Amino acid sequence: MEILKKVTEVTIIHHENIAKYLIRYFGKENNMNIVVTDSGTLNPGDLSWDELKKLGECHIYGNSTQEETIIRCKDAQIVVTNKVAFDKQTIEALPELKCIAITATGYNIVDIETAKKKGIIVMNVPVYGTKSVAQMVFALLLELTQHVGHHNETVHEGRWEKCDNFCYWDYPLVELANLTMGIIGCGQIGMATANIAKAFGMKVIVYDVYTDHLAGKNLEVVDIDTIFTQSDVIQAVR
Ligand SMILES: NC(=O)c1ccc[n+]([C@@H]2O[C@H](COP(=O)([O-])OP(=O)(O)OC[C@H]3O[C@@H](n4cnc5c(N)ncnc54)[C@H](O)[C@@H]3O)[C@@H](O)[C@H]2O)c1
Is the CB of residue 135 below 6 angstroms from any atom belonging to ligand 1? Predict the structure, then answer.
């Protein structure tokens, strides 16, 4: 295939738009055979695959088992996966494969070494859902400090009305201001979380195996022991 000539070595390419990057690496006119293995996890129907469909024959499956993946991707040059794994055995069973495009940040679902040996490009999305994950960290944290769901339910059951005094609560309400959040692995998500923590008035300390990217970010970088001894709450994401 013509498209293969451009692929000289394996690369992990960070993309924010699969179709755009496929065109960049493989050209527009190559009539690629594309298989989306598990569209359901990312796109249950509210997003469009039209840009991908313009690039060739495009088969879109809601989900695929490992066995189905090998059968469905037999002739595919490009596979698009969210959670379906492309391990050594699967990659080796797909002779036409030239690119694995992951519609997520983590690429641990792909055997990178095998992809590398076979000259297969692996793409991922580095900032997928960063703000949402940071928001979820605080959704969970606020559940622990405020128990909003429990209070909502029990107030509806009449517990506040039956309370002896005006101040009905089952759990102490914990104020985040002045507490310390320790962040282990301070990349995209860690920094987004740090910003929210600071907005709550929390003190933030961070630990990362690499620290160059933290310079000038106004974050207190500490060692791992300090994280465990000084933090009131710890986020670990890497
Ligand atoms: N569930 C979701 O929707 C979702 C969305 C985005 C990312 N993620 C996952 O969250 C994780 C982090 O994403 P990100 O965008 O912040 O990645 P990132 O690469 O920007 O940040 C990860 C940080 O962790 C550090 N790190 C790696 N190993 C470490 C270790 N052993 N000790 C301390 N620090 C270490 C890295 O140096 C880096 O700074 C990834 O695993 C990703 O797959 C999940």
Answer: no
